[in-house]
Amino acid sequence: MSFDNAVLMASIVGETSVCFFLLKKKVGRSLPFFLLYVIWSLLSDICFSLILWKGSDLVYGRFYLVSTTIDAILEFSVLVELAWSVLKPIRSTLPRKALIALVILIALAALVIWPLAAMTVPASMTPLNALLFHLEETFAILRVALFLIMASFSQLLSIGWRDRELQVATGLGFYSIVSLLVTVIHSHQSVGQVQQYHWLDVASSVSYLGSLTYWVYCFATKEQERKEFSPQMQQFLLLMSGGARSGRVALSDLPSESPRKRTK
User: Fold this and answer.
1) What is the DSSP letter of 119?
2) Full-model pTM
3) Fewer Cβ neighbours under 10 Å: the N or C end of the chain?
4) How far, in Å, CA of 94 to CA of 96, rounded?
C-alpha cells in the first residue's frame, strides 16, 4: 500500500471514529449539520478510494465536481450553525430574523473573500477546475476567519476549548490554515518541482488527520457546561436587539401619508 492510500484509509478510519463519538455523545442534536458534514466526508472518501482502485479518471472528475459542490453547501451550513450555536445563551432576546441576518452576513463575507481567493488559483488549470479550486479556497479562508474570530473573542462569547463550538472551529481552522499555506507555497514553485509539490499535498492531508484525531479526543470527553455571556457582551447584544425593537415600534407608530404607501 502506498503512503497516499494509507493516508486515505486513515482518514476513513478517523471520520468513522468522529461519527461514532458524535452519535454516542449526542453532539448531532446540537450540531446536526456538522454531523452531516462528517458523514458526507466519510462517504465521499470511500467513493474516492473505490474510484482510485478502479482507475477511472472520467468518473473521478465527475465525482469531484459533485463532491466539491456538496462540500461547499455543507461547509456553509456548518459555519452558520456554529455561529448560531455560539449565540445560544441570548437567542431568545434577539430579533426573529436574526438567523436570516446571520446567513446573509456569512454569505457577504464569502463574497468579500472570493476575489482574494482568486489570487491562489493556478493559471494552468482548466476553467472548471479553476472554479472548483477557487470555491474550495474561498471556504478555506472563511473557515479560518470564523476560527480566528471565535478564538479572539472567546472571553466575550464565554466559550473555551472544552465547548463543542470552539472545538469544531479549531479543527476546521487548523487544517484550513495548513491547506492555505500549501496553496501559497505551490504558487511560488516551479513546474519541475513535482516531488516537492506532491509531498506538500500529503502534508495537507496529514493535517486533516490531525484535526480528526483532535475531534475524536474532544468528543470522547465530557462537554463543559455552557456559560452565560459576559456582562459586556450581554449589554451590547441587548442594546442591539433593543434598538431593533425600538426601530420597529417607531415605524409602526408613524402615520400613513397616503393609502398607496406601505412600510416594509
Assistant:
1) G
2) 0.82
3) C
4) 6
Q: Are 167 and 38 in contact (CB under 8 A)?
A: no
Distance CA 83, CA 159 (A): 12
Burial class (CB in 10 A: 0-12, 13-18, 19+), 7: middle
Q: Specify the long-range contacts of residues 20-27, CB closer than 8 Å, at least 24 apart.
A: 21/215, 21/216, 21/219, 21/220, 22/219, 25/219, 25/220, 25/223, 27/164, 27/219, 27/223
Please say if the pLDDT value at position 23 is more than 50.
yes
**How far is it, in rounded angstroms, from Cα 42 to Cα 92?**
35
Question: What's the CA dihedral at 163, 169, 174, 177 to 10 degrees?
Answer: -150
Q: Taking a C-beta distance cutoff of 8 angstroms, is the pair 56, 97 a contact?
A: no
Residue 132: exposure state from Cβ atoms within 10 A (0-12, 13-18, ≥19):
buried
Q: Nearest-CA neighbor of 224 among 166, 146, 185, 179?
A: 166
pLDDT tens readout for residues 119-131: 888 777 888 888 9
- Give the Cα separation of 90 and 88 in Å (integer): 6
Burial pattern 65-75, b for ≥16 Cβ within 10 A else e, equals eebbebbbebb
Give the containing element (helix H, strand E) for 198: helix 194-220
**Element spanning 75, H or E:** helix 57-86
Q: Classify residue 89 by its DSSP letter.
A: G
